[in-house]
Amino acid sequence: MNTLRYPLLIALLSIMSGCTDLKEEVLDESFTGSGLAETISGAIAPAYGQVSWTWRHTNYYGLQLIASDEAILPHRGGTDWFDGGKFLAVHSHNITPTNDLVSSSWNELTRNISRTLTAIETLRPLAEIGNTQAESALYEMIALRGYLNMLMLDSWGLVFKKESSLETSAILRGQDAVDYIESEFLSVVDVINTDLGAGRMTQTAVLGFLARLHLNAAVYRDPYGTPDFRDEDLNKVIEYTSNVINSGLYDLSPEYFELFNDENNTNKELIFALDQRGVLQREHSRWTYWSLAGSLWGRPEFPSSDGTDGPAITPDFYRTWEAAYAVDPAEADARFYMQNQKIPEELRDLTGVSPANDENHYYCTTPEEYEFDRGIIRGVIWGPRKDDNGAFLRCDGNENVYRIYPVIQIKGNGPDRDVAYVNHELQIDYSNEGRLHSKGYRVSKYQFSRTSPNANNFSSIDIVLMRLAEMYLMRAEAQLRMGNTDGALADVNTVRTSRTAREPVPAALSSIDLDILFRELGFEFYWEGLRRTNQIRFGRYEDSWTEKTDSDPMNRLFPIPQSAIDGASNTPGYLTQNPGY
């Protein structure tokens, strides 16, 4: 892994059949006309397509989520999701260099960086002879490489720098790494496209990532020390975020959950996202179904569209919502929960009702009308039910009208299996009781795509990696750290009070400090892959939560996989393990 070498475009295309329909024979050896267009699109498609795999739930996304205080994934019922103990160890910060979640995240990310380099090597000579399409694509790949190296710096404290696949990467850390990533972004920010949309690297995406870089530079310079916030960094955060905010290209979404719906490709809040449409439809709807109960089906027309009983929200993170509001959070903040299921009032009371006597306790709906609830899911859930032959039960024999029941616990080996309803309770932990399949409040932020038959493939929902709300809240944090409390409060309230599509609209705050801002970041961006980074920057990563009591700051960075160190052993001292592992 030390050289990060990959072959050039011709060989690469044969490898990337899963990411693009392009084939080697479509390339025009003269690099003119349609052959040139195919060459350019063939160069960038593997790099963009790999980002989806990098952010897969059992790669980088899972690593960020489970390591934070947002989520926990126990060994469900002693039968599911053990996977060598990797999720248990990551959540408790008891990670070793052989942890497979760490290794898979590292491998997919370094592969992604390699694909950007391959694209850059293909595009640069075409750009140098004056092809403007190749030049534009080249700028995107340089920006994408900068973003991917920032993920590497954030999680492992290093970046890989090289301009030729024939070279060995230079490894940079600390300020050198920050400077290198900044140079990547600055080299393209004034020339990159401004209009290709959230699925591509654009000028506003680069500005947003520059703001992220300078906000987190306080940590990246010395990941184990007290964050060193400098005015020159914070002023750049304000400058870059203001440029995006004032560009006129983006608007905050009045309906919070429309940010994560099938049609979100056109949502004007999205700045950078993974375009899941067309040939790039891959396995990323797993962000939708990973947390859902294994006894729940997301689409009544698709019998294989069940959840996995994966991670749940930690009781600790849930209680930050309770602490913020004098009432149930669902009655105070539209970001917490959206009820989509139209359960008749007379059916809501389940007193005296059980799977043994509920054959008539259902309501009817069509696939077009059916949506499960969104946000943080608590209590008994409702969904379609199968007969003994595995077919969903219909209403009065109508093939397009389905019965929706309280969901029976049919997964796992706990005492509630087949005799009780799925009842999501707050407490979840590693104990025998706390790890049962139904335990823990679930997060249902993304819609179950209407183009997805099984949650694994063909989701039309773009995966959101940067949006306008983050620009406001990064600017708020920079202003607050520089003493401009009024400016920070105004930006936070702009975001809070923008979700006006339905009640309850979160009320404007009357005051702001770092604790309240940290809490607000959690409310706005829960389960979007930002929490671990925010915890470290706010000095909260050494706190205790659920099954995590470790307070060693050395765990702010993950261990470099032992396989990567072993692979670099032919160059002594090239790749050294992070301290503490």
Strand fraction band?
Answer: 5-15%
Secondary structure tally: strands: 15
What is the residue-mean pLDDT, rounded to a whole number? 91
* Main sheet makeup: 4 strands, antiparallel
**CATH domain topology of the largest domain:** Serine Threonine Protein Phosphatase 5, Tetratricopeptide repeat
How many distinct folded domains?
3
Shape: globular
Percent of residues in helices comes to 25-40%
In the CATH hierarchy, the architecture of the largest domain is: Alpha Horseshoe
Stretches where pLDDT is under 50 for at least 5 consecutive residues are 1-31
CATH C-level class of the largest domain is Mainly Alpha
The assigned structural class equals alpha+beta
Separate helix tally:
17
Q: Compute the gyration radius: what is it?
A: 24 Å
Furnish the topology, listing elements before pairings.
Elements: H1 9-15, H2 33-54, H3 60-67, E1 71-72, H4 86-92, H5 100-128, H6 132-156, E2 159-161, E3 170-172, H7 174-186, H8 203-220, H9 231-245, E4 270-274, H10 286-289, E5 312-313, H11 315-324, E6 337-338, H12 345-348, E7 363-365, E8 374-377, E9 379-380, E10 382-384, E11 394-395, E12 398-406, E13 423-424, E14 442-444, E15 463-467, H13 468-481, H14 485-496, H15 514-525, H16 531-537, H17 562-567
Antiparallel strand pairs: 1-5, 2-3, 4-15, 6-8, 7-12, 8-14, 9-13, 10-12, 11-12
Helix pairs in contact: 2-5, 2-6, 3-4, 3-5, 5-6, 6-7, 6-8, 7-8, 8-9, 9-13, 13-14, 13-15
